[in-house]
Write a structure and sequence with these properties.
Length: 159
Amino acid sequence: MTLAFVVPGLDEAASEKAIAILQNRLSQEQEAALVLKHAHWNVTGPNFIAVHEMLDPEVEAVLAQADETAERIATLGGTPDGRADAIVRNRTWKSFDAEGRVGTEEYLKALIEYYDAFIADDRKAIAELDELDVISSNIIQDHVQELEKFQWFMRSHLA
């Protein structure tokens, strides 16, 4: 990886490690937006409209997270990769399983499981970033707070 520059207070090695972690998070954030939109289009059954309408604000929130992550990568002197093949190349998580037109309960259970891994991966990234760049860590901490809140919405909907 060739850095355009190194921000004051970080060395090149720490910057490169932080960028790699953030790129992985960017890829999962982008995929999550696609997964949520897929569910939005294909959810069916009881409480359809409630779940359908609940998903769009989360799509927007996750896309905003991806934008913030990409901008942090650029701020650190890196080049964020937002291409579709980067999502696949950077995947270290299980892909989303629900396909096609599926009932609300099944979609929400699949999304909750997806978010379990998403949140766990973000928390792992936070621990790694704490040692490298506290600013990047704080950004991902804010993202986790939003993800956990939405997961609570989904769990509450099933309760």
